[in-house]
């Protein structure tokens, strides 16, 4: 048996189970099989326009909607952006063209060849190391963080995405910042699925974490300001206090760090 056959068979079996469960959970209307036609619609949006005039960028067309939604409100001020995965440097150039001219753009990549894209005169920095190495990431945070936007376009290996997220989201993302993870399709491909839990599975735990203050409480009055039964403090995972919003597009997710000034139940981090 070829060295690659076993992981391929394992992931194929997992995906078959996933598909079966999906159809069951979706029910007869949402789950009925249909033929989905490929279309080649023109790209829309500002990041798409920059992409089309750029070279050496590696992006799927559906990502531009997410980029525009996250980045457009941040364009009128200097921000700090971290992208995991530099490749040929094209996406760093794209962000340079799109973001405020004083924004700081940091790329990290495991490939030492990417160091050639380090360009401090233009506020573009590249650091070389593995995205799953928290000591390396700590150095990047100490040198450049905290970041307003983090984009994971690195190895796309399930465990790497989760390791980077669990370290960077709490330690490197600014208040109200956005953490994007792209190429989520690779979660389902044997080439990248090094463990059964995908990043998508992980985000269901993040959704649970957003609601962890309801695990040990029952009743609205516990959350009413002024009510004698009101809970004033409760033990929750740190994630409960900082995950504000989770958005999914096809193959790209955006997890927003909570704006501390927005009310959320009765609790404040
Ligand atoms: C899809 S490419 C990045 C494309 C680039 N962001 C763009 O849009 O043009 C993925 C990059 O991740 C890098 N990479 C792979 N494994 C990595 C790891 N464990 N840590 C950091 N970077 C990694 C690869 O060297 C490659 O340059």
TrEMBL record:
GO annotation, biological process: methylation
GO molecular function, one term: methyltransferase activity
Record InterPro entries: SAM-dependent_MTases_sf (IPR029063)
Superkingdom of source: Bacteria
Alphabetical UniProt keywords: Methyltransferase, Transferase
Name the UniProt record assigns to this protein: Class I SAM-dependent methyltransferase
Lineage: Bacteria, Bacillati, Actinomycetota, Actinomycetes, Mycobacteriales
């Amino acid at each position: 048996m070829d060295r690659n056959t076993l992981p391929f068979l394992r992931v194929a079996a997992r995906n078959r189970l996933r598909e079966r469960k999906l159809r069951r959970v979706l029910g007869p209307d949402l789950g009925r099989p249909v033929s989905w036609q490929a279309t080649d619609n023109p790209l829309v949006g500002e990041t798409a326009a920059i992409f089309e005039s750029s070279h050496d960028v590696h992006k799927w067309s559906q990502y531009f909607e997410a980029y525009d939604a996250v980045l457009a409100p941040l364009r009128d001020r200097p921000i700090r952006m971290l992208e995991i995965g530099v490749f040929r440097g094209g996406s760093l150039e794209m962000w340079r063209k799109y973001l405020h001219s004083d924004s700081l753009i940091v790329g990290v990549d495991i490939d030492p060849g990417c160091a050639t894209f380090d360009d401090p005169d233009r506020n573009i920095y590249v650091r070389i190391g593995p995205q799953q190495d928290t000591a390396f990431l700590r150095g990047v945070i100490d040198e450049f963080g905290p970041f307003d936007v983090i984009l994971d376009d690195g190895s796309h290996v399930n465990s790497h995405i989760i390791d980077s997220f669990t370290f960077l989201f709490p330690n490197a993302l600014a208040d109200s910042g956005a953490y994007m993870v792209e190429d989520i399709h690779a979660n389902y491909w044997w080439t990248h699925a090094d463990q059964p839990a995908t990043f998508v599975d992980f985000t269901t735990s993040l959704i649970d974490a957003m609601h962890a203050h309801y695990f040990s409480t029952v009743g609205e009055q516990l959350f009413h300001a002024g009510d004698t039964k009101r809970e004033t403090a409760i033990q929750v995972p740190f994630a409960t206090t900082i995950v504000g919003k989770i958005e999914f597009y096809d193959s790209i997710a955006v997890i927003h760090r909570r704006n501390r000034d927005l009310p959320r139940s009765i609790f404040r981090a």
